[in-house]
Amino acid sequence: MTEEKYYCDFCRNEIHKDDPVYVDNDGDWFCSEVCLAISNTAESFDTVEEALENG
User: Fold this and answer.
1) pLDDT digit string, tens, across residues 14-47
2) Spatial separation of the C-alpha atoms in residues 45 and 49, rounded to whole Å
């Protein structure tokens, strides 16, 4: 069983299961506030799992 991988939509760094994730108005995911700065802030989540539950 392979675990699905998630990547920052700006820098393409992998976002790990327990990493914070930042989501913009278009639903794009970012690994940091710096990467998110290229887009409008909609929500931020404490983990990838939380983003999946609320996205």
Assistant:
1) 999 999 999 988 889 999 988 888 665 556 778 8
2) 9
- Interstrand relation of 29-30 and 41-45 (parallel, antiparallel or unpaired): unpaired
Q: Quick count: other Cβ atoms within 10 Å of Cβ 48?
A: 20
42: nearest Cα among 53, 20, 27, 32: 27
What predicted TM-score, i.e. pTM, was given to this entire model?
Answer: 0.66
Q: Which tokens sit at 47?
A: 């983990």
Number of residues that this document lists for the chain: 55
Nearest CA-CA partner of 31 in 20, 18, 17, 45:
20
